[in-house]
Amino acid sequence: MAASFTSLVFIFSLLASQLFVYQATAEDAPLVNGLSWNFHKSTCPKLESIVRNQLKKVYKKDIGQAAGILRLHFHDCFVQGCDASVLLEGSASGPSEQDTPPNLTLRPEAFKIIEDLRQRIHKICGRTVSCADITTLATRDAIFFSGGPDYAVPLGRRDGLNFATRNETLANLPGPSSTADALLRSLGNKTFDATEVVALSGAHTIGRSHCNSFTRRLYPNQDPTLEQNFANNLKAICPELNTNTTTFLDFRTPNTFDNKYYIDLINRQGLFTSDQDLFTDSRTSGIVRSFAENQSLFFEKFVQSMIKMSQLKVLTGNQGEIRAKCSVRNTDNASFFKSVVEEVVEDVSVF
Ligand SMILES: *[C@@H]1O[C@H](CO)[C@@H](O)[C@H](O)[C@H]1NC(C)=O
Ligand SMILES: *[C@@H]1O[C@H](CO)[C@@H](O)[C@H](O)[C@H]1NC(C)=O
Ligand SMILES: *[C@@H]1O[C@H](CO)[C@@H](O)[C@H](O)[C@H]1NC(C)=O
Ligand SMILES: *[C@@H]1O[C@H](CO)[C@@H](O)[C@H](O)[C@H]1NC(C)=O
Ligand SMILES: *[C@@H]1O[C@H](CO)[C@@H](O)[C@H](O)[C@H]1NC(C)=O
Ligand SMILES: *[C@@H]1O[C@H](CO)[C@@H](O)[C@H](O)[C@H]1NC(C)=O
């Protein structure tokens, strides 16, 4: 897309001057037992550069892919923990997370990007890095290449063996029409406080949404919290309920990871009810304002919240497994190991 390319040039010129690198410390982001900041240091020393170099190419072609990876990580962690269960394709044992309605935000390209990284990494390091760790690292780099903070992530996750049920998936992913109250309760159950809920919602600074996630705010009656010009633009993009079109989540800077999303909310130009209501609800409006006024503060709280989220119910040590293919449990395809070595991975220009 031409538009994404233009903003990408802009982003890379920002990166050249390295706006912001946030180094989380153990104090503000305590680690779960079994995870560490340098888990793969001896078994896969090039891990982080393999991921970063490959994603640099991917995002140079289409920065729009960054939001897809970020969303994948959220869906993975909120449902059954960060165990790469979201990457499992449905099987005879039952439908997977991918078959449940909130999957609409999951882009097929995102799954491909993770599996491609997995191939490159396993080719160089052997089967030492889980799909859950790869998704976490790819998410960090998606944020970085979009102009957001750079930060260290704890590693050492293992891949899960359990498929999440449809009900579990629905119950753990609050929808776009959720109120702030519902968000606070749903994420509060996962021990996130109001500041963390508002910070994580800031992920909507990049990405797109289908009309059906917000047209109930337009038809039949317009949500009074929608600013009129913004509402008119949305009506032009989505002329009726559930039009099959997409639009940007943060129309000010759609592909740049910054704090403009909070400026949108203050101007009543948040796309989802779950966005706008953060500014309506008195428990969160002050936090929205503080992030709109201070991007460093947003980055700091976002990084802390992401590190916390990336450790939700993780499997470590001998739990779970390290998948030989991200979409399939090892037990479901025992013959796969033999073929891994022969896989052709083109263009491994990391070294
Ligand atoms: C999303 O879930 C629906 C069923 O709810 C399924 O038909 C569709 O194929 C799924 N999409 C993806 C990308 O997995
Ligand atoms: C899933 O949720 C629906 C609606 O709440 C309920 O009727 C159904 O029994 C649940 N299924 C399982 C397997 O728990
Ligand atoms: C979250 O909800 C589950 C299921 O309803 C409950 O068992 C658990 O105690 C809750 N956790 C917190 C921290 O509220
Ligand atoms: C929505 O639009 C896309 C791209 O134009 C198309 O591939 C897809 O089949 C459409 N889906 C529906 C449900 O009409
Ligand atoms: C913005 O937030 C950062 C990070 O918390 C803090 O160090 C800085 O003092 C804040 N700036 C202002 C103007 O409040
Ligand atoms: C198992 O993996 C091999 C190698 O990739 C593949 O060709 C085959 O289709 C897989 N089988 C199943 C049942 O997924």
Give a structural overview:
The chain is mostly helical and 351 residues long. Residues 1-19, 91-96 and 339-351 have low confidence and may be disordered. The protein has 14 helices and two strands, in the order ααααααααβαβααααα. It folds into two domains: 24-173 and 313-341, Peroxidase, domain 1 (Orthogonal Bundle), CATH 1.10.520; 180-305, Peroxidase, domain 2 (Orthogonal Bundle). The protein is globular and about 55 Å long. The two termini are 30 Å apart. It has a two-stranded antiparallel ribbon. It binds 2-acetamido-2-deoxy-beta-D-glucopyranose (6 copies). One 2-acetamido-2-deoxy-beta-D-glucopyranose (NAG) binds at residues 98-101, 103, 106, 108. Ca(2+) 2 binds at residues 205, 250, 253, 258. The record marks 71 as: Transition state stabilizer. Residues 34-330 form the Plant heme peroxidase family profile domain.
